[in-house]
Amino acid sequence: MSFVVLTSNGTFSLITGLRRSFLVVVAAFLAVGIGLAPANANPKYAGIVIDANTGKVLYNENGDSLRYPASLTKMMTLYMVFEALESGRISLSSRVPVSKNAAAEPPSKLGVGAGRSVTVEQAILALVTRSANDIATAVAEHLGGSERRFAEMMTAKARSLGMSRTTYRNAHGLPNSAQTTTARDQAILSLALRQHYPQYYKYFSTRSFRFGNSTIGNHNRLLGAVRGVDGIKTGYTRASGFNLATSAQANGRSIVAVVMGGTTSARRNAQMTSLVQRYLPRASTRGNGALIAKKNTAVAPATVAALPVVLPQRGPLPTARYSGATTASAFVSPNSQTGAGSTALGAMTAPVPAAPVPQPAPAFIPDQGASLAEAAPSPSVAAATAQTASIDTTTTASIPQSGWIVQVGTSPERETAMGLLTKAQERGGNILRSATPFTVAFDTGSATVYRARFGGFDDQRSAVNACNALKKKGIGCWAASATQ
Questions:
Q1: What is the pLDDT of residues 447-458, one digit of tens each?
Q2: Where do the TM regions start and end (predicted)?
Q3: Which CATH architecture has domain 308-351+381-483?
Q4: Start-end ranges of CATH 3.30.70.1070 in the chain?
Q5: Tens digits of residue pLDDT in 220-245
Q6: Can you give the pTM of this predicted structure?
Q7: CATH annotation of 46-279
Q8: Which of the residues are catalytic?
Q9: Phi and psi for 454 in degrees, rounded to 5?
Q10: Residue 58: which pLDDT band, with cuts at 50, 70 and 90?
Q11: Burial of 270 (0-12, 13-18, 19+ CB in 10 A)
Q12: What gap in Å lies between CA 7 and CA 115, rounded to an integer?
């Protein structure tokens, strides 16, 4: 048997026998290579696919490597809006004022003038479809009092959802070297949006909406083009590349997938299409899909100053300021059982966290055994004792108001204090796995210093034991009781 092919010079050639077998092998190799091109050819690439019914990771390439979220940021902005809607703090008809600062944001934008307003529902639709930066800032200022404060709230929410490597610095995703995430974290957020707010998740499937005399179309071209796709969000900056988070459901099967760092929107869309078509049929029809536990949170007050910021796990952390209560502190130095005055973290140094450097992506290797639960650290208890020493009286309203905390250092720079927390976690290992890191600013009268602390200890003994165990690793610390 023989067949005819078109050669590279435009002529036809008769292929038979061994030559045909060789070409079949070459063609198969090329097809595989084309399928992997986004990963192999692009060092910014990261991708993950998760079975939304079971939490099983079906595909993972650089899923835990730091990347820039770009406008995927607005998924968390919308999560915060949905939370406020559910709590009754706002309604779909509530007005969101657009400040001069918000109106000045660069495109993509809705173009609402300063001093005007939009409804919450219009804001949702503008974020979903046009990915409007001006509206994202307006929402942040409306719900958080300021965009900076809202970003701190977003980071806190990310930690509570298990997004351990995500830090927000703004509500829109415009370039900021400290605003980083991972493909896995964005998949977790996609699942949380679906699971926690199904009544509002439907907005992510909006193809277009009318605003004034204009029809605003959705940037997500997979809607209506790829079977099963029902959302979620696109994103792009020059630093991030082309990002896309996608949800797909069909025949009882359900997945969420994230692609980050695409070189063009077309290649990003092609890669996502390939992932959906490959892995949706492989997803399980069993499981209830309740993968992201919803935290019990009190309704946030209109003034954001009283909102506690508790950020477990790793990553750059927001700052809280003292105002209101007292803490009694027990100090353990690196070289003695008691001491007073030193809050240095041993000989450790804490450089300012650098912006993520895209890493070359490995060849495609399905991660068949991984699950969302693997990202959660396991708690452990340090077995040691220490003595209580001098008292440091401060005032605070933003740290935990009960239980005990451990302080590992102070610095005149917040970034350095955050670095101390990261270093302590890396060096302390399981000692701090169940602790919640945060920084607090304290006015000494002549300057502001930032204290690096871990909360989440139930009593004095557990805090002092942890501090003493840290001391054995060369980490100076305080064990502090937070009381009203």
A1: 778 888 888 787
A2: 21-39
A3: 2-Layer Sandwich (3.30)
A4: 308-351+381-483
A5: 888 888 999 988 999 999 899 999 99
A6: 0.58
A7: 3.40.710.10
A8: 71, 74, 131
A9: -120, 130
A10: very high
A11: middle
A12: 65
